[in-house]
Task: structure prediction
Amino acid sequence: MLILAAFALIEGLTHKNVLMISGVTGILYCVWAIGQFFDKRKVISYVKALFAYLLGTITLLILAIFTGILIDVISKH
Result:
């Protein structure tokens, strides 16, 4: 969130569209941070970290959509 906030500040001050750069930077930082829990010297550790990050993101997305649909179905009854 700090990375995204910093880029939002940069975008607000310069009026340049840096949303893509902030997203990629955020993902790379998360992958690097998760990769530190595995063997730091192996590239495969960072590949595992990328898959762990993507799996977590996809799982959160699916749960959010399912929860929204469930709330919608319950509220219509």
